[in-house]
């Protein structure tokens, strides 16, 4: 393995961003402080919270805007089709998507990405970015990256330190040391401070020597693997075995569950950054935010003359400095100040902005009560589209199903329920037993209990149908897949 101190010859350096920089997007968070929009089944990185694009799409396009290589995305295996579809929507079709069988924090995720990249280019520069953060001033990014890449080529583990805009107690801080010789705009790391109290945060802000730890890094693949071998060998051993026993699932890289599960649950900060002798920081003023709370989202969003942010079907009267968002039904807010109101199909959140961080406590209470609203949305996304529940009784439930053009469900059967499909938009080809039936708008088809069936959208517009299920057991695990285009079991 290459030594950390190995330098890249001057002839191989560029005046701008090196051509072998590979963005590595970490997409493993659940974003519980943005509940009820962000949940484990569909967390905040998959939502368009600040623009027409989702946070994941914004993160991926930063690499495209800087003319970098196709990204490596490390994500929860349950989110693989959401990630692939959202990347495809913005024209990124060559990403390597690495599936974590279980979340083990950032050090194992980064180790996996580094090992996969190092198989073909051990000296590639990895740019580690979170899928759920925001950069408000992307025009400054190229210059910052260029400085950081040159330091990374010299064997440094470069962190992006964001210029604080206030005494934030929710972020970790980096103390800037002396400038690095030969690397313009890059400094040694003097100290790390983890989430200080208000008094200390105010003192650090006043000193001007401290930066927010953004969680973004630049380093060579060989450098980070060398340092992980030194400081976190258990991570390297487990991840290496998970890659040796990986499987390819369509276009996904699926890490071996047993091996990866043995990796310690540890962040790259604790595993390497706070222990290495090669830590460096590059100060940057990029308008960065981790979009970690509804209050942060209020701060980042455009406001009306009364300081309000209104997203969706929202009406406000005599209210000030509120964040009101509706993902469905109309939300009317009157005569209040400094509130957060978030409405989804199955949950409503009302909180004072000063207590935005406490939303996580609410989610914990919902989880303790085993409420599904803590984890899943009423709308459930699948590789072929989505379904959402409309109503449910003791022995029946009604769903809306949307199938994207050209997509089809698995060939399947059920032991405990029969189904009745009514097409309300588009055209369906339904396999029922050994027969195929074309079902058009306002037509229906009945699928008896135990009958093998499949649904295909052959058209160029989305297919929407209403499904009526009846039977003694209606949960989603009553599906026996016989054949599936998406390699699901």
From TrEMBL:
<dbReference type="InterPro" id="IPR011051">
    <property type="entry name" value="RmlC_Cupin_sf"/>
</dbReference>
<feature type="domain" description="Nucleotidyl transferase">
    <location>
        <begin position="23"/>
        <end position="304"/>
    </location>
</feature>
<dbReference type="InterPro" id="IPR005835">
    <property type="entry name" value="NTP_transferase_dom"/>
</dbReference>
<comment type="similarity">
    <text>Belongs to the mannose-6-phosphate isomerase type 2 family.</text>
</comment>
<dbReference type="Pfam" id="PF01050">
    <property type="entry name" value="MannoseP_isomer"/>
</dbReference>
<dbReference type="InterPro" id="IPR014710">
    <property type="entry name" value="RmlC-like_jellyroll"/>
</dbReference>
<keyword id="KW-0808">Transferase</keyword>
<keyword id="KW-0547">Nucleotide-binding</keyword>
<dbReference type="InterPro" id="IPR029044">
    <property type="entry name" value="Nucleotide-diphossugar_trans"/>
</dbReference>
<dbReference type="InterPro" id="IPR054566">
    <property type="entry name" value="ManC/GMP-like_b-helix"/>
</dbReference>
<dbReference type="GO" id="GO:0004475">
    <property type="term" value="F:mannose-1-phosphate guanylyltransferase (GTP) activity"/>
</dbReference>
<dbReference type="Pfam" id="PF00483">
    <property type="entry name" value="NTP_transferase"/>
</dbReference>
<dbReference type="InterPro" id="IPR006375">
    <property type="entry name" value="Man1P_GuaTrfase/Man6P_Isoase"/>
</dbReference>
<protein>
    <recommendedName>
        <fullName>mannose-1-phosphate guanylyltransferase</fullName>
        <ecNumber>2.7.7.13</ecNumber>
    </recommendedName>
</protein>
<feature type="domain" description="Mannose-6-phosphate isomerase type II C-terminal">
    <location>
        <begin position="370"/>
        <end position="484"/>
    </location>
</feature>
<dbReference type="InterPro" id="IPR049577">
    <property type="entry name" value="GMPP_N"/>
</dbReference>
<feature type="domain" description="MannoseP isomerase/GMP-like beta-helix">
    <location>
        <begin position="317"/>
        <end position="366"/>
    </location>
</feature>
<dbReference type="GO" id="GO:0004476">
    <property type="term" value="F:mannose-6-phosphate isomerase activity"/>
</dbReference>
<keyword id="KW-0413">Isomerase</keyword>
<keyword id="KW-0342">GTP-binding</keyword>
<dbReference type="InterPro" id="IPR001538">
    <property type="entry name" value="Man6P_isomerase-2_C"/>
</dbReference>
<dbReference type="Pfam" id="PF22640">
    <property type="entry name" value="ManC_GMP_beta-helix"/>
</dbReference>
<dbReference type="InterPro" id="IPR051161">
    <property type="entry name" value="Mannose-6P_isomerase_type2"/>
</dbReference>
<keyword id="KW-0548">Nucleotidyltransferase</keyword>
């Amino acid at each position: 393995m290459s030594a950390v101190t190995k330098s890249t010859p001057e002839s191989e350096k560029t005046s701008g961003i090196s051509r072998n920089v590979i963005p590595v997007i970490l997409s493993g968070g659940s974003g519980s402080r943005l509940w009820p929009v962000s949940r484990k089944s569909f967390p905040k990185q998959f939502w368009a919270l600040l623009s027409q694009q989702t946070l994941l799409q914004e993160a991926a396009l930063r690499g495209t805007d800087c003319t970098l290589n196709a990204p490596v995305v490390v994500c929860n295996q349950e989110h693989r089709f959401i990630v692939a579809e959202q990347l495809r929507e913005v024209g990124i079709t060559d990403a390597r998507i690495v599936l974590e069988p279980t979340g083990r924090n950032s050090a194992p995720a980064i180790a996996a990405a580094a090992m996969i990249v190092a198989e073909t280019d051990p000296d590639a520069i990895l740019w580690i970015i979170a899928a759920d953060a925001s950069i408000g001033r992307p025009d400054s990014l190229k210059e910052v990256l260029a400085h950081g890449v040159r330091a990374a080529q010299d064997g440094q583990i470069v962190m992006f330190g964001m210029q604080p805009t206030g005494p934030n107690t929710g972020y970790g801080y980096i103390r800037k040391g002396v400038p690095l010789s030969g690397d313009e705009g890059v400094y040694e790391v003097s100290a790390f401070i983890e989430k200080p109290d208000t008094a200390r945060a105010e003192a650090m802000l006043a000193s001007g020597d401290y930066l927010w730890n953004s969680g973004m890094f630049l380093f060579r693949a060989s450098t980070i693997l060398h340092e992980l071998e030194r400081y976190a060998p258990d991570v390297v051993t487990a991840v290496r075995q998970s890659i040796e026993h990986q499987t390819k699932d369509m276009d996904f890289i699926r890490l071996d569950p047993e091996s990866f599960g043995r990796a310690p649950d540890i962040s790259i900060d604790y595993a390497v950054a706070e222990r290495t002798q090669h830590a460096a920081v590059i100060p940057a003023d990029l308008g960065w935010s981790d979009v970690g709370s509804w209050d942060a989202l209020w701060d980042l969003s455009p406001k009306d003359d009364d300081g309000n942010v209104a997203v969706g079907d929202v009406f406000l009267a005599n209210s000030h400095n509120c964040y009101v968002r509706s993902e469905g039904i109309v939300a009317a807010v009157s005569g209040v100040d400094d509130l957060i109101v978030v409405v989804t199909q199955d949950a409503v959140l009302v909180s004072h902005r000063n207590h935005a961080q406490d939303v996580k406590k609410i989610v914990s209470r919902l989880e303790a009560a085993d409420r599904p609203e803590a984890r899943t949305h009423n709308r459930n996304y699948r590789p072929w589209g989505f379904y959402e529940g409309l109503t449910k009784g003791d022995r029946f439930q009604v769903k809306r199903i949307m199938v994207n053009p050209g997509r089809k469900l698995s060939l399947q059967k059920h032991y405990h329920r029969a189904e009745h499909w009514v097409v309300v938009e588009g055209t369906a080809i339904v396999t029922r037993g050994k027969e195929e039936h074309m079902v058009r708008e306002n037509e229906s088809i009945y699928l008896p209990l135990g009958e093998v069936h499949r649904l295909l959208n052959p058209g160029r517009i989305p297919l929407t149908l209403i499904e009526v299920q009846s039977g003694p057991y209606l949960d989603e695990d009553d599906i026996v897949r016989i054949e599936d285009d998406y390699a699901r079991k």
